[in-house]
Design brief:
heterotrimer, A mainly alpha (655), B mainly alpha (126), C alpha+beta (311), A: 655 residues, two-stranded antiparallel sheet, 2 strands, B: 2 domains, disordered C terminus
Chain lengths: 655, 126, 311
């Protein structure tokens, strides 16, 4: 009846039990708070069933932040283990637990933190920036978020029921095949990614359509903010790469569920094909993450330098070049698998070539600052941290793109240092900077500036302490994913420094939470009074803060790049055309239901509960068909109501 | 906002979706069973599989992605070119990579090193 | 404290940490940067070269960043503030041009070095290469010396200044064979035979690891490689056979079960083609079903007696 599921699935070792209890405790805590404050109805009506991109964006960011905390806890446990597990001391984690932990850490950080922050910010900002009211497909947007949530829920369920994969964040076969991983761990990994991946794919479609079809009248592609270009190119990658992930995960799950032989070592299977395909997705994935971060920095540097972005056209070309090139470099992730020198050299050279447009962007940013008048608010300091760390990471990347060098660095701690360098220094710094930058637009008040400066400091120093020693370790011959090592190797002091670095990063996150708390308490002092706290350049700053649920009362007309800046400069008159009725989509629980069914299907397939899988699948399809046939209709807000609301906002601004 | 007044079976786009669903299933299953029942490789085998894939492609593009309904044909062009390039890169790249890997790593012919060096125009110098 | 002070301190501390890292890299005992063999030496030379080239870009970027941040900060009310200046053909040419030029140089070096340091490529030498067959197991390394009828777990001895041709396979999940002081790594996979050509140009003891995760015992897959004079090596291969445990298919089946041996072991190799027999477990069954797509390889039909001739 319950497939493979039985009481044995509950955790039995103290650390695992601790993890499960904190998760359950945290969830119960949140539920208790909501009950105490009688906010369930509000939560359901205002947030969970909302199709407003801004609300969906905030939900993405909340989930991503919670997952960041979990991922950092994992990191702290991992680095704590390696700091003490020298020689006789085998630390406090068993090898299997350690391996599950780094697999969970990587999976969570990439799929649920980085992707979550990215989709969250895009949802918050893109429609506003384009002069639109919402994304092209608001219902699909909700489905995407809830599928993301379902994937996240599955990963976290593995902490309580069953186990997680111990095969790394990409689960290569044969290790991830049935023979070497007979438990449910790899299945949890497969299905949470499969479900979340579909959400990502749908978002890709959604955002491309939004950008191509919903820009304000007069906003040609070359007049739209550069952030929109970075989203467009990133989503182009999403739409072409995620199907590869879906298929590869699908083939692996067929191997595990039905005993097929796509990636087995016998009967015609080939594990190398898995490695090939997963990286054909995996490489575009990292560009998917970094391109919007580049876009964010472009907006930030131009705004705070009070100057036009240098070489806009060049930047667009660079983004497009990166999008195309990222499809012909993926073999650099497995130079050491045994391909011949022609293949290795080709992909190595292609990888180096991608460094060119990336480097060009850095120079364009610096020349935006040159002859500017730079206001060093928090986002600009994050940018400086980014320049320092990302260039180091880029240098080590160029090194590893030479196959002969990579033979000495692949899968070592040097590699670990490199990719954390790019992801933390590039992606995380970029998304945090973007969050701070657009926070006032969404919430109506700025974040506390001074505390924010300390946050950057902690993240930057923490990052350097945690990862620069790893470069040294890699060159000392330390391979990655070791849970203990010989004391004679002289590695321990470096692992200890790295653990201290993780501590400093945790301090930084703690300061961020403190900053949030203090900012909320001081929100009247920090209020964004006119919707334009930074003297911005793009259209989102032309709305009041927080942005009204319909974004724009009257859809703007655009004649320039940096339209808002030009309007301020020419002291143009406000739009005097009459207010019109606004149509907005109705709230709906369908997104939650579909994702819930999908999650149930995932859970059922993991535990071989076939009847539940069948039911869940049928449920998904039924709801989708119902939604496609029966249109729930829109809400129409009459022009008079809009006018009254806008006047209220105006009064509040003036007071 | 249209109420479903016509019977579902008469609706033209619904019919297209059902057709598309059936065709996509046919092409997927045909490819799988053709591959597993066929014990010899060869050019004909590869071409047949490629034809199935192409059929799948057309089914998806026409039945589901409504490629004929775009108002700005320029976007169609761009999307096509980008997708075609990407698919080409992934498929051709994978074929090249896997072929190369297998060439290097099958049970070894002791003369393979000689062949590698000859292929690349090197000579063993003393 | 004032923001300016804080930022200056932050910048200073960051640069200090970076400088300290560089210092340890240059002066420390770092295996990859202390090559003991020709292959590792060439890889080290490449690392130095690539670093130098990258610094040509990195250092100007750092300098420019610091310069514009200080000179153009708003509080200094910069006199040449030009809010609309966003284009310069000269600048664009420079920063598209110089990186392209650097990458061209690096690409040529890459092409050449990738061919020269191809792990399958034999090392030029007057001496005959020593062939060692390697099998990655859970969770240990098996070294087979077919010429000398010995085998060893987690230990290998090689003669100094003589090229060694490692021929590798796996009887476990995908693994990766790495001796950092002698050269880069190569993956090992079931049913497939990879190669790695290395040479030790100094006597000594070198550490080896597995650099691809293969299950809970993977961290213990360490092995040692002793590089000794030719005569010492020969003596070792002549270790009295009756004193050693025997390695044949039966004892191998015991050996391949998941375990972490506490010490290296030497074996008397009773079956000289054990390596090919191990591979056959995987290639044999796949042959009936394996289409090999369009790969036609003349070498497969004239493949040596090693693969048993199932065609």
């Amino acid at each position: 009846m319950l497939g493979k599921l039985n009481l044995d699935a509950l955790p039995y070792d103290p650390i695992a039990i601790g993890g499960a209890i904190s998760l359950i405790g945290g969830t119960i805590g949140i539920a208790a708070l909501l009950t105490y404050k009688k906010r369930w109805g509000w939560l359901y009506k205002e947030w969970l069933t909302s199709l407003d991109a801004k609300k969906i964006g905030i939900m993405y960011i909340v989930v991503a932040t919670l997952m960041l905390l979990r991922g950092l806890m994992d990191a702290a446990m991992l680095r704590g283990q390696t700091a003490i597990a020298s020689g006789e001391n085998s630390g406090y984690l068993t090898s299997d637990h350690f391996q599950q932990m780094f697999s969970a850490h990587g999976t969570i950080m990439i799929f649920f933190v980085a992707m979550g922050l990215m989709f969250g910010l895009i949802n918050l900002v893109l429609p506003l920036m384009l002069g639109a009211r919402d994304v092209a497909f608001p219902f699909l947007n909700s489905v995407s978020f809830w599928l993301f949530f379902a994937g996240m829920a599955l990963v976290n369920t593995s902490l309580i029921i069953g186990e997680f994969s111990a095969a790394g964040w990409l689960a290569y076969p044969p290790l991830s095949g049935l023979e070497y991983s007979p438990g449910v761990g790899v299945d949890y990994w497969i299905w949470s990614l499969q479900i979340a991946g579909i959400g990502s794919l749908l978002s890709g479609i959604n955002f491309i359509t939004t950008i191509l079809k919903m820009r304000a009248p007069g906003m040609t592609l070359m007049k739209m903010p550069i952030f929109a270009w970075s989203v467009l190119t990133s989503m182009m990658l999403v739409v072409t790469a995620f199907p590869v992930l879906t298929v590869t995960l699908g083939l692996l799950s067929l191997d595990r569920l039905l005993g097929t032989n796509f990636f087995t070592t016998t009967l015609g299977g080939d594990p190398m094909m898995y490695v090939n395909l997963i990286w054909a997705w995996g490489h575009p994935e990292v560009y998917i993450l970094i391109l919007p971060a580049f876009g964010i920095f472009s907006e930030i540097v131009a705004t705070f330098s009070r100057k036009r972005l240098f070489g806009y056209k060049s930047m667009v070309i660079a983004l497009l070049a990166i999008a195309v090139l990222s499809y012909i470099v993926w073999l650099h992730h497995f130079f050491t698998m045994g391909a011949g020198p022609n293949v290795n050299a080709f992909f190595g050279i292609m990888t180096m070539i991608i460094a060119i447009p990336t480097g060009v962007k850095v120079f364009n940013w610096l020349f935006t600052m040159y002859r500017g008048s730079i206001d060093f608010k928090n986002p600009m300091i994050w940018f400086l941290g980014f320049v320092m760390t990302f260039t180091i990471g880029g240098m080590t990347g160029v090194m590893m793109s030479v196959p002969a060098i990579d033979f000495q660095m692949h899968n070592s701690m040097f590699l670990v240092a490199h990719f954390h360098n790019m992801i933390i220094g590039g992606v995380v710094f970029g998304y945090i900077a973007g969050f701070i930058y657009w926070f006032p637009k969404i919430f109506g008040f700025r974040l506390h500036e001074k505390l924010g400066t300390y946050v950057v400091g902690a993240w930057l120093i923490g990052f350097l302490l945690a990862f620069l020693p790893l470069y040294i370790l890699g060159l000392k011959g330390a391979t990655r994913r070791l849970d203990h090592y010989d004391s004679s190797l002289g590695w321990q002091w470096l692992f200890i420094i790295s653990a201290i670095g993780v501590g400093v990063i945790l301090l930084g996150v703690g300061l961020q939470l403190l900053q949030l708390y203090v900012s909320i308490k001081q929100r009247h002092k920090l209020r964004d009074t006119n919707g334009d706290p930074w003297n911005g350049r793009t259209l989102e700053w032309s709305t009041p803060s927080p942005a009204p649920f319909y974004n724009f009362a009257k859809l703007p007309s655009v004649t320039h790049r940096d339209e808002f800046w030009e309007r301020k400069r020419s002291k143009s008159k406000p739009d005097a055309s009459p207010y019109e009725d606004i149509e907005l989509p109705r709230n709906t629980p369908d997104g939650i239901i579909i994702a819930g069914m999908a999650g149930a299907v995932g859970f059922a397939l993991i535990w071989h509960i076939w009847w539940l899988a069948a039911l869940g699948l049928i449920g998904c399809i039924v709801i989708l068909i119902r939604r496609s046939i029966i249109n729930p209709g829109e809400i129409i807000i009459p022009a008079a109501a809009i006018k009254a609301y806008e006047n209220q906002l105006l009064k509040r601004t003036r007071s | 906002m249209s109420a479903p007044t016509k019977s579902l079976l008469q609706d033209k786009s619904f019919k297209l979706y059902v057709q598309g669903f059936v065709f996509s299933l046919i092409f997927t299953l045909a490819a799988y069973f053709f591959a597993t029942s066929n014990t010899s490789g060869g050019l004909l085998f590869g071409i047949t599989l490629a034809l199935f894939a192409f059929g799948q492609l057309l089914t998806q593009l026409i039945c589901f992605l409504h490629l004929d309904q775009e108002s700005k044909p320029r976007y169609n062009q761009m999307a096509f070119i980008y997708t075609a390039l990407t698919v080409f890169a992934i498929v051709a790249g994978s074929l090249w990579i896997m072929h190369n890997l297998h060439y290097n790593m099958k049970p070894q012919d002791p003369n393979i090193e000689q062949k590698i060096l000859e292929n690349e125009g090197y000579e063993i110098r003393q | 404290m004032r923001k300016k002070t804080f930022l200056a301190l932050l910048g200073g501390l960051s640069f200090f940490i970076i400088a300290a890292t560089v210092f340890v890299l240059i002066t420390g005992d770092n295996a990859v940067l202390n090559p003991k063999g020709e292959i590792a030496q060439k890889q080290f030379d490449l690392i130095v070269f690539a670093t130098a080239l990258s610094l040509l870009v990195i250092l100007p970027v750092f300098a420019l960043t610091i310069y514009v941040s200080i000179k153009y900060r708003a509080s200094k009310k910069p006199v040449d503030y030009q809010p609309d200046w966003d284009h310069s053909k000269k600048a664009e040419t420079m920063w598209w041009g110089i990186p392209i030029f650097i990458i061209i140089i690096l690409s040529v070096v890459t092409w050449k070095s990738t061919h020269e340091l191809d792990p399958f490529r034999p090392i030029q030498s007057t001496k005959e290469p020593l062939e060692i067959q390697v099998v990655s197991l859970q969770w240990k390394w098996l070294f087979i010396y077919p010429e000398y009828n010995i085998a060893s777990v987690n230990y290998a001895q090689i003669p100094v200044d003589r090229p060694v041709k490692f021929v590798l396979t796996s009887d476990a999940p995908m693994n990766s064979f790495w001796i950092p002081q002698l050269g880069g790594m190569i993956y090992t996979m079931t049913g497939m035979s990879t190669q790695l050509h290395l040479i030790a140009n100094e006597t000594g003891t070198y550490n080896g690891v597995s650099s691809n995760i293969s299950g809970p015992g993977f961290a213990d897959m360490r092995f040692t490689v002793d590089s000794t004079a030719e005569s010492e090596f020969y003596d070792w291969t002549q270790t009295s056979k009756p004193t050693l445990a025997q390695l044949d298919t039966t004892t191998y089946n015991e050996l391949r079960k998941p375990s972490i041996p506490p010490n290296p072991t030497l074996f008397y190799l009773k079956e000289e083609d054990l390596y090919w027999k191990i591979m056959e477990r995987y290639t044999h069954s796949s042959h009936k079903y394996h289409h090999g797509s369009n790969i036609k390889n003349e070498s497969s039909s004239e493949s040596s007696e090693h693969s048993g001739g199932h065609h």
